[in-house]
Write a structure and sequence with these properties.
By secondary structure, the protein is α/β, with parallel strands linked by helices. The strands form two sheets. A six-stranded mixed sheet has the order 6-7-8-9-11-10, sandwiched between helices. The structure holds guanosine-5'-monophosphate (5GP) and manganese (II) ion.
Amino acid sequence: MFQLAEEIKGAGSIGISGHIRPDGDCVGSCMALYLYLKKCVGPETEVSVYLEPPADVFADIEGIAEIKKPDETDTPPELFFALDCESSRLGDARRLFDGAGRRINIDHHISNTGCGMVNVVDPGASSTSEVVYRLLDRSRIDAEIAKALYIGIIHDTGVFQYSNTSPETLRIAAELVSHGFDFSALIQKTFYEKTYIQNQIMGRALLESILFLHGRGIVSVVDRKVMDFYNAVPQDLDGIVSLLRNTKGVECAIFMYETDAMVYKVSMRSSDLVDVAKIASYFGGGGHKKAAGCTMSGTFHDVVNNLSLHIERQLEEA
Ligand code: 5GP
Ligand code: MN
């Protein structure tokens, strides 16, 4: 049984990080663990959190301004927590993780085989934030920690809509909101609110989407020209793939954007019939059964054809 209090005992320096292009669960779980550990350790222990700059919508999370860049230090901490991913997705923080004396991996991705000396990976949990919550001493959770965990949970469950939402998830959420933060405003601001530009790109992606496999698949792409035209960053594209999946009759939605010439970051969302984690893993990515991603190269049509083959095979078997 993993005991967080035992792990941090005597550590002179502790680092925390999550995956590149951090999403709500990554930011929420890292910040919650950061705030919690800072409360638990003495003045002799330095706790640091390393992440790529989170989206502006997360600016109200306490401590967000204290996030460090991995290249700010050459010395790996004694103890390092990798959250919401395997070490291969830590980006620049991987160096710190690999060099740490003790490495702990906390995650909920089914594709994660565990990269730590200790691995707390629960594919049954809604989110890494839910896994982190279970490791904390409840009496030490305050409103700011609760808020960060709540953000992580609402982002990975689509505000309690997706099938990863369990009775346990809802019990934890109930416990968290009892700390009295304004959860309605938090959901609106961090999940639903879009900038005008974000809505325009979303509208364009929907308008230009293409059905395939007789309407059981849908795909849309945003190329670099469009990204440049709107001066958009990848975070501006969040949520597009979920809207594509809402299309009636669709079993699998694909959204991709061009990161380099002929290189695409692919996001997939599916119904019960298609396991997109399997497909993403096949192409070097990962994720969950109904939400996964990978990076692929080739033309747009190459990428769609390659993915479509796997989707079709799974639909035939289903
Ligand atoms: P999204 O489509 O929102 O970027 O990601 C959906 C899910 O798949 C998330 O849980 C995310 O962590 C995972 N995921 C997305 N892209 C990758 C990837 O390239 N590699 C791995 N291992 N997981 C990914
Ligand atoms: Mn994540």
